Amino acid sequence: MYDLVIRNGSVVDGSGLPAFRADLALKDGRIAKIGAVAERARQELDATGKVVAPGFIDPHTHFDAQLLWDGYAKPALSHGVTTIVSGNCSLSLAPLRAEHRMKLVGMFNQIEEMPLKAFKEGVIWDWETFSEYIARIRKGLAINVAPLVGHSVIRLWVMGNAAMERTATAAEIAAMQDVLRECLDAGAIGLSTSYVDMDERLAPVPSRYADAAEVDALASVLGEFARVLQIVPEFYDPDLTIARLDQLAELSLKHNIATTFSPLFLNADNAHGVERVMARVDEQFARGARVWPQVQTRPIDISFSFSVPSLLFIRFPSWYRVLRFGAFDDIVAAFSDPESRKNLIQEAAMLEPLWPRLILRQVKTQANQRYVGKTLAEIASLRATTPVDAMIDLSLEEDLEAHFLASGMGHNDDAKVAALLGHPRVHIGASDGGAHILSFSTYGDTGHLFGHFVRNLRSMSLEAAVKKITADTAAIWGIPDRGRLQNGYVADITVFDPQTIDRGEEVFVNDVPGGGSRYVRASQGVDAVIVGGAVAWSLKDGYHDAPGQILPGAPNKAAA
Ligand SMILES: [Zn+2]
After folding, report:
1. pTM summary value
2. Which residues are registered as beta bridge partners of 89?
């Protein structure tokens, strides 16, 4: 008897070939039969009118901390994502010595906007090594996790504070190679490094002090295990990005590894730069190198209030100082004092074109509800003031809990983004799930792919879109037995309605440990999400236990 049969769905199997009508029978966590299934099963799902696809794989996330209190990586799982790659951008939570914990928390807070309180109140720090961390998150895991190990933390582990000061000696590089081997043995899918990120003191993260010899030595260890290297290049500059991808190409060829860099996105002023980067990607693939650029599906929209530091003001020293280090009273004082207010506005003069377009999305007081949904230009004219003054006044009136949305900041040219997403060398990803939780909702990028690019714009077929975020991703990352619907494959499956799948509205919720908040989106049009043969989420019943795994899994080792 089968465990589960999904009946009468339109099967889009990840291969890119046309959909076909079939039943899927699951047994012992794997796909046992695809076709007409006459036998009954312990559990049945009717998928009439729905698409049955492999579970989606999200290659760029920062769920490392959230997995400590939430084995579902909510709400990613409900969007149809059955596997996440964690530990991107040189940052993972292991290996990490006790004395470096607060250092790492500072970096996560600065770079990924993970709140300090969540780490202090939501986390019991009972691991140091990578395998101890894996053992820790494995309990209660309902989503699959393919964890990268961060170069910055390997450096900290081996070099201590010198990791934030200098290049490594030959002996230190050899020690880092040993640590990386241990992590890969414990189940890491690869190594992540960064060439741009800054820590909480605005100093470069440890990985940025590495010289080329160090990165080469670590890549050679990846070669021993055939595992992946992820980097954050100097993405703000096409020439530097091209230089990095050339470096990646040499590492890929020399050590026979896959590499991926993220993010690559389109701005009004860099369209030509992205074309040049893609031309070089094509050249390097033609040489046999694997250098996968990750491109996100959603446009760059940034939400903010002045109650927490925001990405948007990171470039302006006075704003940064008061928003990041000031208490509530300091921020209110800085906005209230006419002189300091004038200085702040002047310092952010380059945002002047942005102010009128900002939309007020949420307030606390009854009096200001009438402005919600309006632009600051509209509100300013109703209040006979300027848009930037309206923003500051509203913030003061709302005890800093006025929430604004800066939409269409980039990556919003439909035709160009569609062409990029459809490019055979583009790896769809870079959701940043679990990070930047106070600036935008990183969930629902897959729903946006189907709702916007497949259904509205028809720039990509349903089959091609499914392949891009399932079989292609599994192939790039070397994840065996997943990403396709095929007999014998692990039953990671998403059932969705192709007419309605989308991302829900962005909402601000308070569900982070320590009283923290974040922006999230609910899924739309997803019916059921199956991990390892068990229904992990359904529209009808919500979240359920499922056998989430660490992928690709410890090589040659019995599961812990
Ligand atoms: Zn990242």
Report:
1. 0.92
2. none
